[in-house]
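user: can you give me the structure for this one chain? tokens are fine.
assistant: on it. calling the predictor now.
[tool input]
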Amino acid sequence: MSSNRQGTSGNNDLLERLKVSSQVVLETAQKKGRAKCPKCNSSRMFYCYTCYVPVESVPTGYIPTVQLPVKIDIIKHPNETDGKSTAAHAKLLAHEDVTMYVYPSIPDYDKLVHEVILIFPGPDAVSLKDGLKFLTQYNNENKDFSEPNNKHPRLDTDKSDNEDKSMMVPGVNINYLKKVVFIDSTWNQTNKIISDERLQGLVSVELTERKTCFWRHQKGSPETYLSTIEAIYYFMVDFHMQILEKDYNGEYDNLLFFFSFMYKLIRDAKQAAGKL
């Protein structure tokens, strides 16, 4: 569902340039219509948004798996309609790295301020680099409280093993970042979640501004308000380029595997109806 995250300016041509896996399996399933969820037997199209698994007409082996460089928590507003939310895409495609929570059942993030950032465009939000610099400074000043004993588990670079891979950007040690939190909610629903005392100690990070391609864009809100899966995708791109300082070659494009397919379906339907 539409989220309140702001995320370089772009347009819908992005979806045509993505390096995503073959979507033939989705094309075939779309022609067959709705199918059963193998877990709860509910009738769904493509995937079950409550069990986070593909339906019987979409073999699991044909769905890409995305490995993320950092773990993600998604906090869903209880009134967010599951079938309209894109948060399920993240859980489906990066199952091992994504945890879903339904507010108010969330972790006590106030105790995790040294290792978690919140993606939210509030008045106190900072850039990704500045947010990670804050975590690094905080941890360096409180070494007895949190010591990064292990290298970042997903870090893969082309740099020599003799170099310190954890300090790619001056002042930033990525080993201190353990989790990134996203809110899955409409703009009007976010106030209750974002004001929760368990989130108050977290550093809020605002993404580089980008335009949404979401077909359910909230009426009256700027084009820079992204859907949840778009926000996660753009965060990964920013992290890859700004923090890991690597060229981006589509490493996380498959996060938009379902999103891009559904966008094209809706676009083609509107074109056929003469609405575009």
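assistant: here you go. Confidence is low (pLDDT under 50) at residues 1-11, 149-163. The two ends are 23 Å apart (CA to CA).
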